[in-house]
């Protein structure tokens, strides 16, 4: 597979990606069987990839799929992760984008992500913001970050769904279940139609509508993989007394 590298990708970045991808791909191939669907329809230029979020291992599944299909994925990653020895170095060397919880620095994250997209790169954003709180692992309500970036940059938004990796590492579990060997299916859909929302003011209502469309695309792919009908209403943690972040999500935020 020929890698579609964004202009200006340094030789160092390519080398680090290659070494890291070699480790991840070898490990993932040993742990799971895989099926990839729809990857031939992915845009050639920059785009925002929006997957569902089932388990702490699914970034490796998503990264494996994207890299093996010719692109270098970049995530919007918590700023605190960049301070962890080794991991922080890897994040910086592979061009991942730090995200600060400080409102004053939020614009810097969007600017960094825009540079990746403008150079033809792939930005991965989990619209749910954290592992789904839905008890049956359906996509829950989304946050507006992916929609905001899409409307600001004009980049296409590609929905993605994966299913099966939660059997390898259940949500927030500290134990992997290696046997029997699991099979993961990763599917991508057509870009979400946001054309009628671009160009105008990015009001709260517009951002919410764009987010709902993105989540609709992810949910439809998930239902197809599961061969089940999705819930009529997406799970909203705030309506169930759950916190938006953290493992102990059944404890409401103050």
From TrEMBL:
Entry's Gene Ontology molecular function annotations: acyltransferase activity
Regions of compositional bias (Basic and acidic residues) in chain numbering: 228-239
Region described as Disordered: spans on this chain: 228-254
InterPro entries registered for this protein in UniProt: Plipid/glycerol_acylTrfase (IPR002123)
Keywords, alphabetical: Acyltransferase, Transferase
CDD domains assigned: LPLAT_AGPAT-like
Top-level taxon: Bacteria
Domain Phospholipid/glycerol acyltransferase: 47-165
Alphabetized PANTHER family for the sequence: 1-ACYL-SN-GLYCEROL-3-PHOSPHATE ACYLTRANSFERASE, POSSIBLE ACYLTRANSFERASE
Protein name as annotated: 1-acyl-sn-glycerol-3-phosphate acyltransferase
Source organism: Glutamicibacter mysorens
């Amino acid at each position: 597979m020929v890698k579609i590298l964004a202009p200006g990708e340094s030789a160092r970045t390519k080398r680090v990606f290659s070494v890291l991808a070699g480790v991840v791909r070898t490990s993932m191939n040993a742990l799971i069987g895989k099926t990839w669907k729809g990857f031939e329809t992915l845009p050639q230029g920059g785009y925002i990839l929006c997957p569902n979020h089932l388990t702490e291992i699914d970034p490796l599944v998503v990264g494996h799929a994207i890299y093996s299909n010719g692109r270098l994925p970049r995530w919007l990653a918590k700023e605190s992760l960049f301070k962890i020895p080794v991991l922080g170095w890897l994040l910086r060397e592979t061009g991942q984008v730090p995200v600060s919880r400080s409102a004053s620095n939020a614009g810097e994250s969007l600017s960094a992500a825009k540079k990746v997209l403008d150079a033809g790169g792939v930005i991965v954003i989990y619209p749910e913001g954290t592992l789904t709180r839905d008890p049956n692992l359906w996509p829950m309500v989304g946050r507006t970050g992916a929609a905001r970036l899409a409307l600001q940059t004009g980049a296409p938004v590609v929905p993605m769904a994966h299913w099966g990796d939660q059997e390898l590492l259940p949500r927030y579990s500290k134990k992997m279940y290696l046997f029997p060997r699991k099979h993961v299916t990763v599917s991508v859909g057509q870009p979400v139609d946001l054309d009628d929302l671009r160009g105008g003011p990015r009001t709260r209502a517009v951002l919410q509508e764009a987010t709902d469309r993105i989540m609709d695309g992810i949910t439809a792919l998930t239902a197809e993989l599961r061969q089940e009908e999705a819930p009529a209403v997406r799970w909203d943690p705030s309506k169930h007394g759950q916190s938006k972040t953290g493992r102990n999500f059944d404890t409401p935020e103050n």
